[in-house]
Amino acid sequence: MNSEQQIVDYFHHFHAHPEVSWREVETTKKLAAIMTELGVKHHTFPDVTGLIAEIGEGPEVIAMRADIDALWQEVDGTLQANHSCGHDANMAMVLGALLYLKDETLTKRVRFIFQPAEELGNGSLSMIERGAIDEVSQLYGVHLRPIEELPFGQVTPALHHGSGIFLRGKIQGVDAHGARPHQGKNAIDVIAAIHQFVKSVYFSPFESYSAKLTHIQTGGDSLNIIPGGAKFALDVRSQSNGLMIELQQKISDGLTAIAKLHDVEITFEWTDYTPAAEVSETAMHIADAAIRQTLGDEATAPPIQTTGADDFHFYTIKKPELHAAMIGIGADLTPGLHHPMMNFNLKALDIGARVLANIAKHK
């Protein structure tokens, strides 16, 4: 079997066996089995999922990272794990780079990081804590891009992701009979106020940002009870880490004011923070050269700013001297990332693998 077909086969396996964050047990076992079959040094961890492999010899270490977790979402009426963010493709492309490199005479070490729990925004931290980027001078990620960002055949040397964070909150008011609303403190009124408030948060339009309700849970089966309690969540994003700090402060102040206005208690916590990209010019130029070598100038797209977030950028936050960039692969991906029926051109997998392999061979 040639490498291109093997890469597609890897994709089909992981696509058919999705596992959510921190539960990627069988995925990790499959990756280990692939490494054993290829005769590649690797190790797993006793306390978390994920795997690190390495080939080559020499003092310099460059690394490639693939995220391995799937989302939990409704697909055709059934809640299930689903690889609608393309992490199955990311694994296949990084494994493909390994296939193209394993028989090369390398004057450096190439490390392959298969990281859990990207969707929770903290899986990279677990790999950092376990030495994934020790000795590493350059780090490259890879991700498919939706068609509105990049068509099939185009590859960008850098994705400038934004920052993202979740807020989980709880409202404690007072239940009341539907006929006596004045006796209660209606949590739905508070939710409506929060919705209106986050829609009125404004900063400079020259930098993208957003805040929106993504979860509401309140009330029960008795429709004549005005609910006093509710749970809610916000998804908050900004294109820079500095603006994210301002957004968090403004939202925190707003929730405090809403609680006072409605005479209820609102408790909340910020969770699963993902930093905005800190792209290395050095890594971006190396990736740019590799794309041109692999595909030609006409297929080399400029860097892309995207409102999505990725915990890949914790690697550079925690190790500022690390030269890192995430490569974006055009794949005619539709309808979009995280759509339960996400689909793309499978020929993009080999393109991504060959670009990554040429990055590793850069002198």
From TrEMBL:
InterPro entries xrefs: Amidohydrolase, Bact_exopeptidase_dim_dom, Peptidase_M20, Peptidase_M20_dimer
Q: SUPFAM superfamilies of this UniProt entry?
A: Bacterial exopeptidase dimerisation domain, Zn-dependent exopeptidases
Instruction: Please state every residue range assigned to the domain named Peptidase M20 dimerisation.
Output: 170-256
**Which NCBIfam families does the entry mention?**
amidohydrolases
Q: What is this protein called?
A: Amidohydrolase
**Organism name:** Planococcus kocurii
